[in-house]
Specification:
alpha/beta; 6-stranded parallel β-sheet; 337 residues
């Protein structure tokens, strides 16, 4: 099968540190195809207009499309990119965070070229059923579980947290909870391990030094075996101020559960619903220091139970084979329609 995967975010300086690109590469290796970069800049920018994504690739898209069986676009939310209407082959549109605000607008005619919308966010189901009743699927992401070996770490007086979903921009130090975690670490027995991806390390170091936390914060700014890092932490945390900032099911949280380590996540991240149901960690109810401190205290008080649930559910619920089978069915349906 020749699938053309449409990329809409830049490659990080450290290859392999972006979860969306990891998932795309997994699908590409399994089903076949190639990737085309529609993001026009080398670094992320929140002010660059989305309507200009892909303008520089129009000629290349025309050249490639005759040999393509399917198009597969990954983007955070639904957006009417200019090139979608020019595609002749079936298009699969994967939502990384959720349907987003465009789903509430009246004009949805631009959705017509999309053969199937895929979301990993169960909170999207009602909106997608309203938008395209026969053309959506909810597929829970999967990871290569065999890469992770549960290695329990005794919890004593200090909690060691792995921090996932590193910021792409300075603004995201606030919106992705980095500032919040550093503020809380000033008053709690907490150590933080940041998995970084090459952007803005100096800015992170300045914020750590400003709070006097240099001795209690580690920055990993290179490609590493995440399983080995997870072996020396108690849990993993992902925070987001809004519901369109991080993957609905962040890879760092799935990997943590696969290694038998509980997770901390705030309720704006859709995976919070799963964490609450599976009792494999704690949900931060508000994006505030007080709520985060309360969730950390609950995690420490109930660490044994959360760890046991993480070990059982993480290995059972995030099978890569299940995700690949579901996407295989979507591709087959799209080709046969």
């Amino acid at each position: 099968m020749n699938i053309l995967f449409h990329l809409t975010s830049p490659e990080p300086p450290i290859p392999g540190t972006d979860a969306v690109l990891q998932e795309i590469e997994t699908l590409r290796r399994h089903f076949g195809g190639e990737c085309l970069q529609f993001y026009p800049l080398r670094r992320p920018s929140r002010i660059f207009p989305k309507c200009l994504y892909g303008v520089h690739q129009r000629a290349e898209l025309r050249r490639l499309e005759p040999a393509v069986d399917l198009h597969h676009l990954y983007y955070a939310t639904l957006y009417s990119f200019a090139w979608l209407g020019a595609l002749n082959k079936p298009l699969i549109y994967s939502l990384v965070t959720g349907v987003g605000p465009l789903s509430n607008r009246g004009n949805t005619r631009w959705l017509k070229p999309i053969r199937m919308i895929v979301s990993g966010n169960p909170r999207d189901e009602a909106a997608l059923r309203r938008l395209c009743p026969e053309r959506y699927r909810i597929i829970r992401p999967g990871i290569a579980l065999e890469r992770f070996t549960p290695m329990p770490l005794m919890l004593r007086d200090e909690l060691i947290l792995l921090v996932g979903s590193a910021p792409w921009t300075k603004r995201q130090f606030r919106t992705k909870g980095v500032d919040l975690l550093l503020a809380v670490a000033e008053s709690l027995p907490l150590r933080l391990v940041f998995l970084w991806r090459g952007f803005l390390r100096d800015e992170l170091e300045r914020r750590i030094a400003r709070r006097g936390l240099t001795s209690r914060v580690e920055i990993i700014n290179e490609a590493v075996d995440v399983n080995q890092v997870l072996a020396r932490v108690h849990a993993t945390v992902v925070l987001a101020e809004t519901d369109n900032l991080v993957k609905a099911y962040p890879h760092s949280l799935m990997e943590s559960l696969a290694a038998g380590k509980p997770v901390l996540v705030n309720e704006r991240v859709p995976m919070a619903d799963y964490v609450a149901e599976a009792q494999c960690g704690q949900v931060v109810s508000q994006f505030t220091p007080e709520s985060l401190k309360l969730a950390i205290a609950r995690l420490m008080d109930n660490y044994g139970d959360c760890q046991a649930a993480a070990f059982v559910r993480g290995r059972a619920d995030f099978q890569l084979s299940s995700m690949l089978a579901a996407y295989g069915k979507v591709y087959k349906e799209a080709l046969e329609a």
